[in-house]
């Protein structure tokens, strides 16, 4: 992976094609629900809400500089990287260089998120929704919170290998030395710290999208979401 200053301008066609493959048809989502309103299944509405929220969140995060531009995704380097003397300490004293490090690690986080997207989509398809009514009438991010609780640490498990591999091939003259200064356990901490930050960002962005859809169901042009959340 090339994390040079021009890395933000690299083609993103592969990410767009990947995201396009996550969509599922209305027929695939039309699962029987335990409750309904006006002929619309609440269970189906929650599945559609989660799928659209995830698609919108990943579409934003996997765009060029998506993780970097997200206010939630600044990754808070100091919490898991810090200035550990020598090369690393001198590197992190410069605001400009630190910002460049943010850019590089945000791009690495996006690589890990590529593995997370299909896992979320698959879970939405199969997760059991026992109380869809409560999720429909719940808090603005109730469905996202429900999905996150059911997935546990699954996203971290699928993202860690990708993040670790991406960090190993960093060639940027600034980011590379900073990571090389972290050996053994320290580098492992960076991998897990970055993965945790990326996971938190994914769930936060999904929650934001869910809240927006609940407030603007007609903007989705989805008759089920309009029928359920337009009156919820």
Polypeptide structure, described:
The protein has 232 residues and is mostly helical. Helix content is 66%, strand content 2%. Strand 1 (36-37) and strand 2 form a beta hairpin. The model is unreliable at 1-34 (pLDDT under 50).
Task: Record keyword descriptors for this entry.
232 residues; mainly alpha; two-stranded antiparallel ribbon; 13 helices; 66% helix; elongated; disordered N terminus
Short structural summary:
The protein is mostly helical and 232 residues long. It has helices at residues 13-20, 26-29, 42-61, 66-69, 77-80, 86-91, 95-126, 132-136, 142-151, 154-168, 175-180, 185-215, 223-229; strands spanning 36-37, 40-41.
Spans of at least 5 consecutive residues whose pLDDT stays below 50 are: 1-34
Q: Please list the strands of the largest sheet in the order they lie side by side.
A: 1-2
Radius of gyration using CA atoms only = 20 Å
The total count of strands amounts to 2
Please, how many domains?
1
For the residues shown, what is the average pLDDT?
A: 76
Beta percentage is under 5%
Sequence of secondary-structure elements: HHEEHHHHHHHHHHH
Please count the helical segments.
13
Separation, N- and C-terminal Cα atoms: 46 Å
